[in-house]
Specification:
Layout lengths: L1 H7 L2 E2 L3 E9 L3 E8 L5 E8 H6 L3 H12 L9 E6 L3 E7 L4 E2 H8 L4 H20 L12 E3 L5 E3 L5 H11 L16 H4 L6 H18 L9 H10 L10 H10 L10 H6 L1 H4 L32 H16 L2 H4 L2 E6 L3 H14 L2 E6 L4 E6 L9 E10 L2 E10 L2 H16 L5 E2 L21
Antiparallel strand pairs: 1-2, 2-3, 3-4, 4-6, 5-6, 7-8, 8-9, 10-14, 10-15, 11-12, 12-13, 13-14
Length: 449
């Protein structure tokens, strides 16, 4: 709060005067500003330097910034310069005066196919351009799709993923490939923590975005986080009746859960659907006047209604209890934690040691495996724990029995596991303790209607 006040009339490096706060993200705040000598209006993203330094990726950030500064494309937010003071890093960027694309979408419920295609063409042109220069976005989502004064799409934060990545690497370890922010746009291989190809992951996110533009709702939606992950992993979505056959076919190729068979950007750009009315770089204002205005209430597709915090908080209140049905109750347990993966893993290691379990860290699959030794008391009881990052510094740990007797698992869970995990648990999900209190309201979105 105090910082925002000071920033109000602050002049940075004697050159830019900070104006109002445009928005805030996970790692930074974005202000409108103007160059004192030229009057040029810019957007300045302010990072806390300490956070960047702690993330230990200063070199990587510097390298990426160098690359980004050379990314000149009409549909990519230009990075003008980077400045630093002792405590902050400032990214001076092109100002996208049209605001977020999804604000426009929220006004009109959904876009007719030609309008959606036009934005999608601009998105893909930008993505293709950056990929061809070896830069992957890895966080394509509505907040990063902005519009300029003429209604043209501007993708922001290209190449900035090093910052987010570094910070999560600092919090956790290699077990974790970050899935910050809303999981709704994230490719299955990213969620499943298999090492992933940035290009293919970006294409998946573009598929989710195309769906949202055409439908006015998310393709993958569930108030329950684990079920949402499952839907994404299976690419379980349903197209509304008004989708054209060609749009459906393309979506199936973009939202292919297997990154190896998912369509490439070259093939995507060669498709007739994509090439129709192709004028992606025109500076003619985009006419969205004929947007569909349905009589249904405004659908809130903004991730502010779908972020991971909401999902967890809603999950614990609404859904998780249901998930713990008779069958699963005996062989699964789930909790959320605010500790790093390192802390969680080492805690599980200690529990394994105390119970004379063998302990294996399967980094590739992002899970921990505990197996009872043959001569041990808990003969043949085996379990695995999978750790998901669902929001910055919030993890959900899912534990499953993979061998042995269910009653034995229950005993072990109640008498040893639960008490010894104690201090790293933020909340048991679906268990008997109350969910954490979060101030997020349950959104009124009806995205699955
Ligand atoms: P993340 O923390 O994952 O990056 P984010 O994209 O929402 O999430 P920021 O990139 O910090 O966070 O941006 C915050 C908000 O500021 C954006 O949602 C957008 O509305 C606004 N914004 C960002 N860049 C610009 C820009 N160049 N011009 C105008 N508004 C911008
Ligand atoms: Mg952003």
């Amino acid at each position: 709060m105090a910082m925002e006040k000071n920033q109000d009339s602050k002049v940075i490096m004697g050159r830019y005067k900070l104006g109002r706060l445009l928005g805030r993200g996970t790692f930074a705040k974005v202000y409108k500003a103007h160059n004192i000598s030229t009057g040029e209006v810019v957007a300045i993203k302010v990072f806390d330097k300490e956070a960047v330094r702690r993330s230990g990726t200063v070199d990587q950030v510097r390298r990426e910034v160098d690359v980004m500064r050379r990314l000149h494309h009409p549909n990519v937010v230009r990075l003008h310069e980077v400045m630093a003071t002792r405590s902050r890093i400032y990214f001076v960027m092109e100002y996208a005066s049209g605001g977020e694309l999804f604000a426009r979408l929220a006004e009109s419920t959904r876009f007719p196919e030609p309008v959606a295609r036009r934005y999608f063409q601009q998105l893909i042109t930008a993505v293709e351009f950056c990929h061809s220069r070896g830069v992957y976005h890895r966080d394509l989502k509505p907040e990063n799709l902005l519009l300029d004064a003429h209604g043209n799409l501007k993708v922001s934060d290209f190449g900035l993923s090093a910052l987010a990545d570094g910070a999560s690497r600092h919090r956790g370890d290699a077990l974790l490939h970050t899935t910050c922010g809303t999981p709704a746009y994230v490719a299955p291989e990213v969620i499943l923590k298999r090492g992933y190809d940035g290009a293919k992951a970006d294409i998946w996110s573009c598929g989710v975005i195309l769906f949202v533009l055409l439908a006015g709702r998310l393709p993958f939606h569930d108030t329950n986080l684990v079920l949402l992950y499952k839907r994404i992993a299976r690419s379980d979505y349903q197209c509304p009746a008004w989708f054209s056959i060609d749009a459906r076919k393309l979506l199936a190729r973009l939202l292919d859960p297997n990154p190896n068979t998912r369509i490439t950007i070259t093939k995507l750009m060669a498709r007739t659907w994509f090439q129709k009315d192709s004028c992606p770089l025109s500076d003619k204002p985009l006419d969205t006047s004929e947007t569909v205005t349905a009589s249904s209430p405004t659908i809130n597709v903004r991730p502010s209604s779908m972020n991971a915090f909401d999902i967890i908080s809603r999950s614990s209140v609404l859904d998780l209890a249901k998930m713990f049905d008779a069958e699963h109750k005996t062989s699964e347990a789930r909790f959320s934690s605010k500790e790093t993966t390192t802390v969680i893993v080492s805690k599980l290691g200690k529990i394994a040691e105390a119970g004379r379990f063998s302990f294996k860290l399967n980094k590739e699959k992002g899970r921990v495996e505990l197996e009872g030794s043959q001569d041990g008391r808990k003969r043949a009881l085996a379990l695995e724990a999978e750790i998901f990052e669902v929001a910055p510094s919030v993890h959900v740990v899912e534990m499953r029995k993979t061998g042995g007797d269910s009653l034995e698992f229950q005993d072990f869970y109640k008498q040893e596991l639960k008490p010894s995990l104690g201090d790293i648990v933020w909340a048991w999900q679906g268990g008997d303790s109350p969910p954490p209190t979060l101030t997020t309201a349950v959104p009124r979105s009806n995205t699955n209607s």
